[in-house]
Amino acid sequence: MVVEVIIFVFAALGALAGGLGVVASRLPVRNALSLLLVLGSLAVTYLLLAAQFIAVLQVIVYAGAIVVLFLFVVMLLHRQLGAMSPDRLRWQGPVAIGLSAAFLILMLLTLRFATNAAAPAPAEFGTVESVGRALFTSFALPFEVASVILLVGIIAAVVIGRPASRPVAAPPRSSAPSPVGAPRR
Amino acid sequence: MIEIAIVAVKSALLLFILLTACAYMTLLERRLLGKFQVRYGPNRVGPFGLLQPLADGLKLVFKESFMPAHVDVIVYWLAPAISMVTALFVYAVIPFGPEVMLFGQRVPLRLADVNVGILLVLATSSVGVYGIILGGWSSNNKYSLLGSLRSSAQLISYELALGLAVISVVLTAGSLSLVSIVEAQRRVWFVALQPLGFLIFLIAAVAETNRAPFDLPEAEQELIAGYQTEYGGFKFAMFYIGEYVAIVTMSALLTTLFWGGWWGPVLPGPVWFVLKTLAFVFVFIWLRATLPRVRHDQLMALGWKVLIPLGLLNLVVTAVIVVLRGT
Amino acid sequence: MPKVLLDWFYVAVFAVVGTLMAVLPLVVVWLLAPRADLPQKTITYESGVIPFGQAWAQFNVRYYLFALVFVVFDVEVIYLYPWAVVFRQLGTFAFAEMLLFLLVLLVGLAYAWRKGALEWV
């Protein structure tokens, strides 16, 4: 029990430090790294909740793919050592503080009214078998819907990322101009 | 507390063996390349050059620890560490042998057996990309940046093919635990059931480790070594260790997933495991000595247009066979 | 500690020891290695000439495009792992489910291919 508490404290501190880093640092690459720390700490927390599959999934999808994408974007857009762009939203700060305060209150309320009955996880809980069984029986429809969402994601990625000039090897298409106007990069 | 101490000692021992093996792998590679190219290779330091890795290590430790101007200091130091630690981390879940009786106790020849073993390996290697991206980004050097971009694009492209090959194995074995996957190969090794999966995994593994013929990120002639250009001394050594550990990792995974892990006649399990792993390490070196480097468009086309469709096909065929045999 | 977490605990100890093995040599090297900082020495390497411009030249947008497509397919592949594990128990139904899932995604791959998103130019 004690070991779990110690690990949890470390994970929580890591998540907090990472969260602070995400908002505090002015270098986008360091922001992305801080986000990585947050995600890693969350994965440890999932592990403590015995959700091992979710924990590893968190690392593969978020740390292994999404933050890499963030880094690519940062490197693409900001030439000066990934420095922050000058045109920031003026109302961003106050709104962020307001929303954070609201979220904090929500969390405190949840804690206040939570029934303090934590049962130990059943033996099978969190294994890939139990997740799979649930996903492919009870949640079959959401699973199929997810495939359609992913398809939308691919199409969006292709449309957004299309370069201004047509690739040579690609077959000629109908003459419709690209819907987003394919901004010059 | 005792428990922690035992595991820590076990881990340290394992890591020590691993690092020594990697040091000697550099020697093996240089000697073999020498043989391939009809020359000697390093043979002066100790008998057969056996002390060469030691000399190299000492040299790298006492090299000047310089840092180029305008680097992002934290990230610059962090990158090689990420590279090395993630490469080593994988060995927590790779089984080296079956349970053996030692001093009257059952000792499993592995550190841990987790339910999602192979996923943990993939997750770790996907985090390993950061070492390369950040190393190239923080160096403030054009070659480094280009090398790291190429490398990360290559790594993420072949990760998919690698994953698809692994899923076919998981389908055949019915588990993600590496121990169970090896257990499932008691009768017949998966290379016989999954020949296409094995080929896909092998090609993707070579690409994932940035080895020739897929060594574009480090192409000496165009990129001066890519993301490592501005690294010297021990920081360079850490990248190097990360890379060689990754080769051993991929060899160990090929052994574990497709070539029956520790199973084999006559000799004890761990010996078989080491022998098979060494055989694949040799294949990696052999490929480097034989094949010329591919172009970047060829690389991407191979990954996305050949390996991923083939991987999906292999998966569907495997699933059909499993369904037919099940009913 | 529950039995499930025990193996993960071993993994954590291994990670800590591994990190120490990487960090301690760095400290040792920091203490041992000689240093002689000359301004010329800290110039980044550019084949022997003084570097011009920034390292931060804009690079090919293709990298970004591949990363985007990768994220989507990565999520797809993730779904396949739990499927592969429970496949034997659920049998034909799970097979049909996954076939449908894969078909939809194959459409996506075909679309990206047809639109030239997988070409490297």
TrEMBL record, chain B:
GO cellular component, one term: plasma membrane
A Pfam cross-reference name: NADHdh
InterPro entries reported in the protein's UniProt record: NADH_UbQ_OxRdtase_su1/FPO, NADH_UbQ_OxRdtase_su1_CS
Membrane-spanning residues: 6-27, 73-94, 114-137, 158-182, 188-207, 244-263, 269-287, 299-324
Keyword Transcription among UniProt keywords: no
This enzyme's EC code(s): 7.1.1.-
UniProtKB keywords: Cell membrane, Membrane, NAD, Oxidoreductase, Quinone, Translocase, Transmembrane, Transmembrane helix, Ubiquinone
Enzymatic reactions: a quinone + NADH + 5 H(+)(in) = a quinol + NAD(+) + 4 H(+)(out)
Main EC class the enzyme belongs to: translocase
GO function terms (MF aspect): NADH dehydrogenase activity; oxidoreductase activity, acting on NAD(P)H, quinone or similar compound as acceptor; quinone binding
Membrane topology type: Multi-pass membrane protein
Subcellular location: Cell membrane; Membrane
An annotated GO BP: aerobic respiration
Cited function: NDH-1 shuttles electrons from NADH, via FMN and iron-sulfur (Fe-S) centers, to quinones in the respiratory chain. The immediate electron acceptor for the enzyme in this species is believed to be ubiquinone. Couples the redox reaction to proton translocation (for every two electrons transferred, four hydrogen ions are translocated across the cytoplasmic membrane), and thus conserves the redox energy in a proton gradient. This subunit may bind ubiquinone.
NCBIfam families given in the database record: PRK06076.1-2
Subunit-structure text: NDH-1 is composed of 14 different subunits. Subunits NuoA, H, J, K, L, M, N constitute the membrane sector of the complex.
Family of this protein: Belongs to the complex I subunit 1 family.
Protein name as catalogued: NADH-quinone oxidoreductase subunit H
From TrEMBL, chain C:
Membrane-topology descriptor: Multi-pass membrane protein
Top-tier EC class: translocase
Gene Ontology terms for molecular function: NADH dehydrogenase (quinone) (non-electrogenic) activity; NADH dehydrogenase (ubiquinone) activity; quinone binding
Signal peptide start-end: none
GO terms under cellular component: NADH dehydrogenase complex; plasma membrane
Function: NDH-1 shuttles electrons from NADH, via FMN and iron-sulfur (Fe-S) centers, to quinones in the respiratory chain. The immediate electron acceptor for the enzyme in this species is believed to be ubiquinone. Couples the redox reaction to proton translocation (for every two electrons transferred, four hydrogen ions are translocated across the cytoplasmic membrane), and thus conserves the redox energy in a proton gradient.
Similarity comment: family membership: Belongs to the complex I subunit 3 family.
Name of the molecule in the record: NADH-quinone oxidoreductase subunit A
Organism of this sequence: Candidatus Segetimicrobium genomatis
Organism taxonomic ancestry: Bacteria, Bacillati, Candidatus Sysuimicrobiota, Candidatus Sysuimicrobiia, Candidatus Sysuimicrobiales
Gene name tied to this protein: nuoA
